[in-house]
Design brief:
single chain, about 240 residues, Rossmann fold, 6-stranded parallel beta sheet, 9 helices, about 30% helix, elongated, transferase, NAD-dep_sirtuin_deacylases, Sirtuin, Sirtuin_cat_small_dom_sf, NAD-dependent protein deacetylase
């Protein structure tokens, strides 16, 4: 593994247009559970499967149960960025990192200092009234509710919706186009902490036209074969040595 990390160091040193494409594994070391891990959301028993609860249809038809699940499982407070988040922000500050493309909705990249972040699936930090568009932060969602447990707009009384992409919803066009442009213009694509099984997000890596793809993930992925360098290791262990 040390030999591979040295190889990664050399690749990073010579690269000037790096893009990082990350998933849940980036944030697990900050204490946020991976949906598909042994202890993740998809292995816990609820009245409905998580995929059903986190769908647009369910949000509109059963918002009470949606928010019960959402507050308990997706709103996490007191979580701090980890070494991977900070190292990526450092690379951006040095002018070597073009952008972070993330499937996560926790806002930890920005908390660590990253400026150019494409959040493919949105963010729990942003919430908007479904009628008038008034903005609310995650603390409001956690602490304000009516008798049914629903967060309602203080201006018009309508239901508030998290700015996250639910099942059955499309990714935002401007986020997708920005992420694709960044990936297409990179000379190094580092893929980290993702199983590369969630589409359409995972398909974006195929827009890369640069020299090197480095894949860092604890477990093998379906795309290991396209990478120049594969490290089956935790991101924290790897980035702490860069």
């Amino acid at each position: 593994m040390e030999e591979k990390i040295e190889q990664l160091k050399k690749i990073v040193e010579k690269s000037q247009k790096i893009v990082f494409f990350g998933g849940a594994g980036v944030s697990t070391e900050s204490g946020i559970p991976d949906f598909r891990s042994v202890d993740g959301l998809y292995n816990q028993k609820w009245a409905y499967p998580p995929e059903t609860i986190l769908s647009a249809t369910f949000f509109h038809s059963n918002p009470k149960e949606f928010y019960r699940f959402y507050r308990e499982k997706l709103l996490v407070f007191g979580i701090k960025p980890n070494i991977t988040h900070f190292k990526l922000a450092e690379l951006e500050k040095q002018g070597k990192l073009l952008a972070v493309v993330t499937q996560n909705i926790d806002g930890l990249h920005q908390a660590a200092g990253s400026k150019k972040v494409f959040e493919l699936h949105g963010s729990v930090l942003r919430n908007y009234c479904t009628k008038c568009g008034e903005f609310y932060d995650e603390k409001y969602i956690a602490s304000h509710s009516d008798q049914d447990g629903l967060p309602l707009c203080e201006k018009c009384g309508s239901l508030i919706k998290p700015d996250v992409v639910l099942y059955e919803e499309s990714l935002k066009d401007e986020i997708v186009s920005g992420a694709i442009k960044a990936i297409g213009g990179a000379d190094l694509l580092i893929i980290g902490g993702t199983s590369l099984t969630v589409y359409p997000a995972a398909g974006m890596i195929h827009y890369f036209r640069g020299e090197n793809i480095v894949l860092i993930n604890r477990d093998p992925t379906p795309s290991d074969g396209i990478a120049n360098l594969v490290l089956h290791e935790s991101l924290g262990n790897v980035f702490s040595k860069l």
